[in-house]
Amino acid sequence: QMAVAMLDPGEGQLILDPACGTGGFLITGMNHVIEKIRAAEMAKWGNKIDRAETAVRDRIKKFADRFIVGIDFNPELVKATKMNMVMNNDGAGGLFQANSLVSPATWDEALRARKIMGYVDLLFTNPPFGSKIPISDPAILEQYDLGHAWTYDKKTDRWTMTEALQKSQPPEILFIERCVKFLKPGKGRAAIVLPDGILGSPGLGYVREWILRNTRILASLDLHADTFQPFVSIQTSILVVQR
Fold it and tell me: CA-to-CA distance for 197 and 206, rounded, in angstroms?
């Protein structure tokens, strides 16, 4: 709710969660826009409640069908999200089972038809993270700057990407780059939940340098240690960026 309130989605904005889980971000974002639609139609029609509700339903359907997109690797979670969406004003038509990190050319036709690479206005996500689920497939790693090895020059305090690939990368690092590439250049904004190590660990300076080169940082929000307890004990933050 905090992330959605900060980015304040509107009716004509494409909203994406590329690791949507059970759809919490998407449903919160959708309902935020629906409240705006309802308020606008009520103001327009005054005491003609029936006319207002009909107009609201039409606008909600159009918005939910066209501007809400969710992707998750786990087919069971996609089913759960679809049910969740149907119970919360729909939007289930924009949900897809796919791996957000692989080449978009390998996605199924329905997802490719959505044309989301470089077209997303607002992205909200809590990607899977941890060294226990590393990405080691060279075909995936080679697509990413952050899938390559980087070297650090103390004199210039700069990181430089090399031709060599990493042996593996935790998924959240690749998700940062993919999320930025999803966004509209110059306009798209994202709120991403990340482990604090990415924002402070000395060995991950190249990730921070990539973020600084490719985005404008709007906010970094330190989350309370208990935010994801009892399931996850990792300290996390929300990074808010604009491409």
Answer: 12
Neighbours of 221 (CB within 10 A): 14
- Write out the two tokens for 141: 């790693």
Q: What does the alpha-carbon distance between residue 25 and residue 4 come to, in Å, rounded to a whole number?
A: 8
Measured distance CA(145)–CA(133) in Å, rounded: 19
Residue 156: strand pairing partners: none
- Residue 89: which pLDDT band, with cuts at 50, 70 and 90? low
Distance separating alpha carbons of residues 173 and 193, to the nearest angstrom = 11
Measure CA 190 to chain center: 6
Task: Give the global pTM.
Answer: 0.93
- The two most distant CA atoms of the chain are separated, in Å, by 70
Contact 238, 191 (CB under 8 A): yes
Q: Residue 79: name the closest of 97, 94, 67 by CA.
A: 97
> Which pLDDT band holds residue 90 (cuts at 50, 70, 90)?
low
Residue 25's pLDDT is: 96
Determine contact, residues 97/162, Cβ cutoff 8 Å. no
What is the secondary structure of 57-115 as a DSSP string? Answer: HHHHHHHHHHHEEEEES-HHHHHHHHHHHHHTT--GGGEEE--TTS-GGGS-HHHHTT-
